[in-house]
Amino acid sequence: MTRILQLSDTHFGTERQPVVEAALDLARALAPDLVVISGDITQRARRGQFAAARKFIERLSLPVLAVPGNHDIPLFNLFARALNPYGNYKRALGAVLEPIYETPGLLAIGVNTTRPRRRKDGEISDAQIARVAQRLRQARPGQLRVVVAHHPVRAKVESDRFNLLIGRERALSAWGQAGVDLILGGHIHLPYVLPASANPAVAAGWAVQAGTTCSRRVRGNIPNSVNVITCEADGDTRVCHVERWDYAAATHAFAPVDKTLVAG
């Protein structure tokens, strides 16, 4: 069985410490093969906020694949935004902005959809699309093929359409043909699972959106949440589920609230 714990939009600098501790407890209990952090790791890309994120990742003591979000680029420091937008990110989390993680049962590919020239919108280039598609085609038989980006490729509510990734149609077409299974995202603090493409003629796996793991910046009445993705072989069939876990203040712990079958 392959298990992924998807965290997102931690926004260190606005974190709720009891929720941070609950997320760490859950990670230890589940012992996933990989922890994914799908962007907006900090609130304002400051060194102290990245230091807190680094400490959190070290305390996980698990493999982690992280990608930047728009909040991980300086907003008010225009000099840094223009000349070294990922400087603090790289100091804390490493120089690779588009990491890849692979096991016999999993291929996870990170994509940097942030653009320093944009305030918050995400974009993907033809070169990025081609690189990811080529890597997906190289997946081993039986691997779960996952792409991790910050910006969503599919909206659940109409008001989120302006948050969608620019260039997503080209990406979904290419990645679908290359065999992508899941596209993990964040950005809008709204957890849901939908077919990645709104066009039924385009088979591009599933869009798996995560809420904010531990920030005070929750969306409406949606609590802090994480996703737990499990995939196991059942004979010649692969059965995969995405389970949403919400934080409950009464118990100071995350608990499962919803489960979606995405393959099987």
TrEMBL record:
The keyword Metal-binding applies. The keyword Oxidoreductase does not apply. It comes from the Bacteria. SUPFAM superfamilies: Metallo-dependent phosphatases. Residues 3-190 form the Calcineurin-like phosphoesterase domain. GO terms for molecular function: hydrolase activity; metal ion binding. InterPro entries: Calcineurin-like_PHP, CNP_phosphodiesterase-III, Metallo-depent_PP-like. This is Metallophosphoesterase.
